[in-house]
Amino acid sequence: MSTSSLGSGSGRSARAGRRAGVGVTRPGLVWAVPATVFFLLFALLPLVLVAVLSFTSWDGVGAPTFNGLDNWTKLLHDPVMTQSIWLTLVLTVAGVVVQTPVSILLGVWAAGHQRNRAVLSAVFFIPLLLSATAISVVWRAILDPNFGVPSQMQWLFGDGNLMGSQSGAIAVLTFVGMWQWTPMHALLYQGGARAVPQVLYQAAAIDGAGKVRQFLHITLPQLRNTMITSVILMLVGGLTTFDTVLILTQGGPGTDTTNSAYYMYQQAFKSFDFGSGSAIALVLVVVATLISLAVVRLSGYDKMRGTTEGL
Amino acid sequence: MKRRAFAVALGLSLATVGVTACSSGSTAAGGSNTIHVLVYGDASNKVEKQIVETFNKTSKVKVVLDTIPGADYQSKLNTVINTPQAPDIFFNWGGGSIQPYVKADLLLPLDDMIASDPGLKSNFLPAVFNTAVIDGKSYGIPMRGTQPVLLFNNKKVLADAGLSVPKTWDELLNAVTVLKGKGVTPFALGGGDQWPTLMWYEYVFDRVAGPDLFQKALSGDKTAWESPESKKALGMLKQLVDAGAFGSNFDSVKFTDGGSPALLAKGKAAFELMGSWGYATQQDANPDFAKNDLGYSNFPSVSGGKGDPADVVGNTNNFYSVLKKTKHPKEAAEFLKLMYSDEFVKAQLAIGNLPTTTNTEQFLDTSASPEYSKYQYNLVKAAPSFQLSWDQAYPPAATTPIHTAVQQFFNGKLDVDGFIKAMQALPAS
After folding, report:
1. TM segments (chain A) (predicted)?
2. Of the CATH numbers 3.20.20.150, 1.20.1260.10, 3.40.920.10, 3.40.190.10, which one belongs to the domain with range B34-144+317-362?
3. Same CATH topology for B34-144+317-362 and B147-314+387-425?
4. Which chain A residues have any C-beta within 8 angstroms of a chain B C-beta?
């Protein structure tokens, strides 16, 4: 993946260099120094430290003592860990499946020229401005089984025990995630939809294609790259979902919504078992890397194919 | 462009310098003539500041008060305690909360201080003082106020149902039947928070088996959990849950967001088992209810149970512990003496805390709500045993497994044997 993207990058800067009248064809390595230093200091170094910690027993007091593979063997036989990975994947997939169609429809709609569009878009994008904590607190109050919406709609919610079962709690987390993140992805799709050349629609209209066919055969294919970007963001977000779990369900009932990120926090900062916490963190890093590599490969994102070929 | 890169590089090096400066800053502040006292940052700091001022007026060695706001306290304390930035004296919950530090040999046993001033022990209620005794040595002096767990009730709901406050377990079961017939949830329970559920275990286990059973379990004897008393207590809890005493949606209700207090205040539930702060919570959220209809009592007795019906559970108090490496143990002892002074007691009472010193009694009339303060004080004073909350008595590593097991037993995911197994798997203290 790196060759082609680097190639296009150096091509662009070569052109820029020529315009500025300097005979450089590659960006000097010096320019990479600040970013590299930051990356080493704040990304790689902590990662290495976490890897080392995962082979120690440390309660945060005193010095860590090496305990070999203890944390890892414990993790392998820990049902909560297995469940937490499974839960993380469920929450991630559910997030992508639920958010994508809504974001596309909302984004494409917001890219149009309807009346009141600007005002309504502004309203739809409000959740984007709120912190996850505020959102979780508000939804907790709305979903209160005795004083919130469920108590008024018992035909739908029964006794309102939404967060008392695993399926219910997962549904709530997915829904709140959708409410929180759809606006951001809609914004991406709005930008993507605006970039679709109008000539395509004009040609289709002449050929007699209706709105639905135009959407299916022009808008959607043209949004392919946007979609990949958006899905990758959703995957990363889904894998690291933490704040909503912390506030809405606290990983409960029992351990029913303890996803990997929350489990890591619990082990490290509530049980003061930094060794186990670090091991979980590493598992999360590996899983996330594998997934994003797979997406990049499978989607052809690495080829950076444009959508305006032939125009 | 080049100039900008330079600026970036400069900025970066400045940032790095800034980071290092920050981390060394507090060490520099810890000069040789000061004692650093670290406390949980909240409304009670008002009193702590006042006491520090009083101390500094006469002392050559000055006390500096540092606060860490909110729920971050424990993790931040854990981060600094074994570094040069560690405080000399710090706030804690006694019991398991300081055990890791005792084990790491960071804390000063206070027995020598007590030997030269017996008042440091004799001026405090014994049930409370003993919470910070580990392996026979004292590691903490009580500060702030005690927080026993009480059975709060809605007087109006009880009157409407023709019930009186239950004094025995059978009366409590009867109340469940009557209240359910009236369409009222007998007990409000913030099961989503998990710790309110734990309070039920603490009381039922104490009433059935007495305080020794839990002490046995805490000291590492895992057979305590599979004893007949333990099984009996679990059976009683199961019976209560199955009878619908808590309704069916308690797992979606929280105390912390005002859910379960509202159930009690609005008459949708008749009782709530809650720490003594439940009173202040109601005063704040539902002042009319707190004034007119909020009742409170001790947990009912269990016939045939080994536990004394006067026993209480909850948070006994907060404590000041002293670090071994403090340069001023003498002055620290002088500072700790202020924790049983009249000034301290009056100031705590004025902000609604209930100190656990023997002289508290004389000033109870000056408290924010004298009747409630007197009730609590007499309850704690008369209690043969004050069981510290299980999640505080065990070291921090056990908190999550306890909460999980407690919640899963209540909502039916664990049976009696599953719960016993979970408790036996707790990290030993």
Report:
1. 28-55, 85-111, 118-142, 162-181, 227-248, 274-296
2. 3.40.190.10
3. yes
4. 30-31, 33-34, 37-38, 59-62, 137, 140-141, 143-147, 159-165, 249-250, 252-255, 266, 269-273
Inter-chain CB proximity A272 and B400 less than 8 Å: no
Residue from the list A141, A162, A253 with its beta carbon closest to the beta carbon of B407: A253
Residue with tokens 């004073």: B381
Q: State residue A176 phi and psi, 5-degree precision.
A: -65, -35
Give the three-state DSSP class for B356.
Answer: coil
Tell me the H-state helices in chain A.
2-20, 33-39, 45-53, 70-76, 79-110, 117-124, 132-142, 149-152, 154-157, 166-194, 198-206, 211-214, 220-222, 224-239, 243-244, 260-265, 274-299
Give me the tens of pLDDT residue by residue for chain A, a chain 311 residues long: 333 443 444 444 444 444 444 555 677 788 889 999 999 999 999 999 999 999 999 988 878 999 999 999 999 999 999 999 999 999 999 999 999 999 999 999 999 888 888 888 888 889 989 999 999 999 999 999 999 999 999 999 989 999 999 999 999 999 999 999 999 999 999 999 999 999 999 999 999 988 999 999 999 999 998 998 899 899 989 998 999 999 999 998 999 999 999 999 999 988 899 999 999 999 999 988 888 888 878 877 666 666 666 66
Shortest Cα distance, chain B CAs vs residue A81, angstroms: 14
Q: Where do the domains of chain B lie?
A: 34-144+317-362, 147-314+387-425
Burial grade of A220 (CB within 10 A; 0-12, 13-18, 19 or more): middle
If you measure CA to CA, which chain B residue comes closest to A160?
Answer: B249
Task: Please judge whether B411 and A164 are an interchain contact, meaning their C-beta atoms are less than 8 angstroms apart.
Answer: yes
Closest CA–CA distance from residue B14 to any residue of chain A (Å)? 13
Query: Which CATH superfamily, name and number, covers B147-314+387-425?
Result: Periplasmic binding protein-like II (3.40.190.10)
- The dihedral region occupied by B51, where left means phi > 0, alpha psi between -120 and 50, and beta the remainder, is alpha
CA distance A254 to chain B (A): 5
- Global confidence as pTM: 0.86
